[in-house]
Amino acid sequence: MFKHEKMLFHPVAVERPNPQYAALLQEQLGGANGELKAAMQYMSQSFRIQDPEIKDLFLDIAAEELGHMEMVAQTIHLLNGHDVDAAAVPAGEIQTHVLMGLNPGLINASGYSWTGDYVSVTGDLCADLLSNIASEQRAKVVYEYLYRQIEDKKVRQTIDFLLNREEAHNAMFRAAFNKVQSSGSNRDFGTTKAARMYFSLSEPSAGDNPFAGTEVNPPSFR
Asked: What contacts 24+ positions apart, CB below 8 Å, involve 162-167?
Protein backbone atom coordinates (compact mmCIF):
# COMPACT_ATOMS: atom_id res chain seq x y z
CA MET A 1 0.00 0.00 0.00
CA PHE A 2 1.19 3.48 -0.81
CA LYS A 3 -0.03 6.85 0.34
CA HIS A 4 0.73 10.33 -0.88
CA GLU A 5 1.78 12.87 1.71
CA LYS A 6 1.23 16.41 0.46
CA MET A 7 4.79 17.46 1.14
CA LEU A 8 7.77 17.27 -1.17
CA PHE A 9 10.69 15.11 -0.07
CA HIS A 10 12.76 18.31 -0.23
CA PRO A 11 11.48 21.83 -1.08
CA VAL A 12 12.07 23.04 -4.64
CA ALA A 13 12.11 26.53 -6.15
CA VAL A 14 13.39 28.44 -9.18
CA GLU A 15 14.79 31.94 -9.57
CA ARG A 16 12.71 32.50 -12.71
CA PRO A 17 10.98 30.48 -15.46
CA ASN A 18 13.30 29.01 -18.07
CA PRO A 19 11.73 26.52 -20.53
CA GLN A 20 15.17 25.49 -21.81
CA TYR A 21 16.17 24.34 -18.34
CA ALA A 22 12.83 22.54 -18.06
CA ALA A 23 13.58 20.65 -21.27
CA LEU A 24 16.97 19.58 -19.89
CA LEU A 25 15.44 18.35 -16.62
CA GLN A 26 12.96 16.18 -18.52
CA GLU A 27 15.82 13.68 -18.83
CA GLN A 28 15.61 12.94 -15.11
CA LEU A 29 11.84 12.63 -15.19
CA GLY A 30 11.28 10.31 -18.15
CA GLY A 31 14.76 9.35 -19.33
CA ALA A 32 16.70 6.09 -19.25
CA ASN A 33 18.55 7.10 -16.08
CA GLY A 34 15.77 9.11 -14.50
CA GLU A 35 13.73 8.88 -11.34
CA LEU A 36 10.75 6.97 -12.77
CA LYS A 37 13.07 4.33 -14.22
CA ALA A 38 14.81 3.92 -10.86
CA ALA A 39 11.54 3.61 -8.93
CA MET A 40 10.10 1.03 -11.31
CA GLN A 41 13.33 -0.96 -11.50
CA TYR A 42 13.87 -1.29 -7.77
CA MET A 43 10.21 -2.03 -7.08
CA SER A 44 10.06 -4.66 -9.83
CA GLN A 45 13.25 -6.32 -8.60
CA SER A 46 11.92 -6.48 -5.04
CA PHE A 47 9.07 -8.88 -5.83
CA ARG A 48 11.28 -12.00 -5.76
CA ILE A 49 13.76 -11.03 -3.03
CA GLN A 50 13.72 -13.42 -0.07
CA ASP A 51 16.00 -11.50 2.31
CA PRO A 52 13.55 -9.26 4.25
CA GLU A 53 16.11 -6.52 4.97
CA ILE A 54 17.23 -6.24 1.35
CA LYS A 55 13.63 -6.42 0.12
CA ASP A 56 12.75 -3.48 2.38
CA LEU A 57 15.82 -1.62 1.14
CA PHE A 58 14.72 -1.97 -2.49
CA LEU A 59 11.16 -0.86 -1.70
CA ASP A 60 12.26 2.03 0.52
CA ILE A 61 14.59 3.38 -2.16
CA ALA A 62 11.91 2.86 -4.82
CA ALA A 63 9.46 4.91 -2.74
CA GLU A 64 12.06 7.64 -2.30
CA GLU A 65 12.70 7.71 -6.05
CA LEU A 66 8.98 8.40 -6.57
CA GLY A 67 9.45 11.35 -4.22
CA HIS A 68 12.41 12.50 -6.31
CA MET A 69 10.26 12.18 -9.42
CA GLU A 70 7.72 14.51 -7.83
CA MET A 71 10.48 17.01 -7.02
CA VAL A 72 11.79 16.96 -10.59
CA ALA A 73 8.29 17.32 -12.05
CA GLN A 74 7.52 20.28 -9.77
CA THR A 75 10.79 21.96 -10.74
CA ILE A 76 9.99 21.46 -14.44
CA HIS A 77 6.52 22.91 -13.83
CA LEU A 78 8.01 26.05 -12.23
CA LEU A 79 10.62 26.42 -14.96
CA ASN A 80 8.03 26.18 -17.75
CA GLY A 81 6.17 29.21 -16.43
CA HIS A 82 2.59 29.90 -17.51
CA ASP A 83 2.71 30.48 -21.28
CA VAL A 84 3.32 27.95 -24.03
CA ASP A 85 6.26 29.14 -26.11
CA ALA A 86 8.11 26.50 -28.12
CA ALA A 87 10.46 29.19 -29.44
CA ALA A 88 11.86 29.51 -25.92
CA VAL A 89 13.37 26.01 -26.27
CA PRO A 90 16.20 26.30 -28.81
CA ALA A 91 17.19 22.66 -28.28
CA GLY A 92 15.41 19.67 -26.84
CA GLU A 93 11.81 18.54 -26.60
CA ILE A 94 8.92 20.88 -27.43
CA GLN A 95 6.05 18.46 -26.82
CA THR A 96 5.49 20.22 -23.49
CA HIS A 97 4.49 23.35 -25.45
CA VAL A 98 2.63 21.84 -28.40
CA LEU A 99 0.94 18.79 -26.90
CA MET A 100 0.87 18.73 -23.10
CA GLY A 101 0.03 22.32 -22.17
CA LEU A 102 3.19 22.66 -20.04
CA ASN A 103 2.38 19.55 -18.02
CA PRO A 104 5.62 17.70 -17.13
CA GLY A 105 5.43 14.51 -19.18
CA LEU A 106 6.97 11.06 -19.03
CA ILE A 107 9.43 11.92 -21.77
CA ASN A 108 13.16 12.52 -21.93
CA ALA A 109 15.02 15.67 -22.97
CA SER A 110 14.54 14.78 -26.64
CA GLY A 111 10.80 14.16 -26.32
CA TYR A 112 10.90 10.37 -26.49
CA SER A 113 8.39 8.56 -24.27
CA TRP A 114 9.43 6.67 -21.17
CA THR A 115 9.47 2.92 -21.72
CA GLY A 116 9.59 -0.17 -19.53
CA ASP A 117 12.54 -1.27 -21.64
CA TYR A 118 14.64 1.00 -19.39
CA VAL A 119 13.95 -1.34 -16.47
CA SER A 120 16.41 -4.17 -15.81
CA VAL A 121 15.24 -7.18 -13.79
CA THR A 122 17.03 -10.55 -13.77
CA GLY A 123 15.73 -12.33 -10.65
CA ASP A 124 19.35 -12.75 -9.55
CA LEU A 125 20.11 -10.55 -6.55
CA CYS A 126 23.80 -10.03 -7.29
CA ALA A 127 23.14 -9.08 -10.92
CA ASP A 128 20.29 -6.74 -9.95
CA LEU A 129 22.34 -5.07 -7.23
CA LEU A 130 25.24 -4.48 -9.62
CA SER A 131 22.76 -3.07 -12.15
CA ASN A 132 21.38 -0.73 -9.49
CA ILE A 133 24.81 0.44 -8.44
CA ALA A 134 25.50 1.28 -12.09
CA SER A 135 22.09 2.98 -12.40
CA GLU A 136 22.80 5.24 -9.45
CA GLN A 137 26.24 6.02 -10.86
CA ARG A 138 24.75 7.00 -14.22
CA ALA A 139 22.10 9.13 -12.52
CA LYS A 140 24.87 10.98 -10.69
CA VAL A 141 26.61 11.64 -14.01
CA VAL A 142 23.42 13.06 -15.55
CA TYR A 143 22.77 15.31 -12.56
CA GLU A 144 26.37 16.52 -12.73
CA TYR A 145 25.92 17.41 -16.41
CA LEU A 146 22.67 19.21 -15.61
CA TYR A 147 24.34 21.13 -12.78
CA ARG A 148 27.02 22.39 -15.18
CA GLN A 149 24.45 23.71 -17.66
CA ILE A 150 21.73 25.09 -15.39
CA GLU A 151 22.76 28.38 -13.78
CA ASP A 152 19.58 28.91 -11.75
CA LYS A 153 20.89 28.81 -8.16
CA LYS A 154 17.68 27.42 -6.66
CA VAL A 155 17.45 24.66 -9.25
CA ARG A 156 21.10 23.86 -8.56
CA GLN A 157 20.22 23.40 -4.88
CA THR A 158 17.62 20.81 -5.87
CA ILE A 159 20.07 19.05 -8.21
CA ASP A 160 22.72 19.04 -5.49
CA PHE A 161 20.30 17.42 -3.04
CA LEU A 162 19.23 14.77 -5.56
CA LEU A 163 22.80 14.02 -6.58
CA ASN A 164 23.74 13.43 -2.95
CA ARG A 165 20.77 11.12 -2.45
CA GLU A 166 21.86 9.10 -5.48
CA GLU A 167 25.25 8.75 -3.80
CA ALA A 168 23.51 7.52 -0.64
CA HIS A 169 21.55 4.92 -2.62
CA ASN A 170 24.75 3.84 -4.33
CA ALA A 171 26.39 3.23 -0.96
CA MET A 172 23.33 1.30 0.33
CA PHE A 173 23.27 -0.98 -2.70
CA ARG A 174 27.02 -1.58 -2.36
CA ALA A 175 26.53 -2.58 1.29
CA ALA A 176 23.75 -4.97 0.26
CA PHE A 177 25.96 -6.45 -2.45
CA ASN A 178 28.73 -7.05 0.09
CA LYS A 179 26.24 -9.06 2.13
CA VAL A 180 25.27 -11.40 -0.72
CA GLN A 181 28.24 -11.27 -3.07
CA SER A 182 29.04 -14.99 -2.71
CA SER A 183 25.55 -16.03 -3.81
CA GLY A 184 23.63 -16.47 -7.07
CA SER A 185 25.42 -15.65 -10.31
CA ASN A 186 28.46 -14.50 -8.36
CA ARG A 187 28.98 -18.09 -7.19
CA ASP A 188 27.79 -20.07 -10.19
CA PHE A 189 30.54 -19.17 -12.66
CA GLY A 190 34.31 -18.99 -12.89
CA THR A 191 35.32 -22.56 -12.14
CA THR A 192 37.97 -23.05 -14.81
CA LYS A 193 41.41 -21.68 -15.60
CA ALA A 194 39.84 -19.44 -18.26
CA ALA A 195 38.22 -17.44 -15.47
CA ARG A 196 41.69 -16.39 -14.26
CA MET A 197 43.25 -15.46 -17.58
CA TYR A 198 43.94 -12.03 -19.01
CA PHE A 199 44.36 -11.78 -22.80
CA SER A 200 46.60 -8.93 -23.92
CA LEU A 201 45.15 -8.17 -27.37
CA SER A 202 46.36 -4.56 -27.68
CA GLU A 203 49.33 -4.14 -30.02
CA PRO A 204 51.54 -2.37 -29.33
CA SER A 205 50.95 -2.91 -25.65
CA ALA A 206 50.93 0.03 -23.25
CA GLY A 207 53.60 -1.76 -21.27
CA ASP A 208 53.22 -3.92 -18.23
CA ASN A 209 49.47 -4.10 -17.82
CA PRO A 210 48.57 -4.23 -14.12
CA PHE A 211 45.61 -6.50 -14.92
CA ALA A 212 47.70 -9.15 -16.62
CA GLY A 213 48.33 -12.09 -14.38
CA THR A 214 45.50 -11.18 -12.04
CA GLU A 215 44.67 -14.24 -9.99
CA VAL A 216 41.05 -14.93 -9.17
CA ASN A 217 40.03 -17.68 -6.81
CA PRO A 218 36.81 -18.89 -8.42
CA PRO A 219 34.13 -20.45 -6.22
CA SER A 220 32.91 -23.90 -7.06
CA PHE A 221 29.45 -25.00 -8.19
CA ARG A 222 27.07 -25.89 -5.39
From this structure: 162/28, 162/68, 162/71, 162/72, 165/64, 165/68, 166/136, 166/139, 166/140, 167/136, 167/140
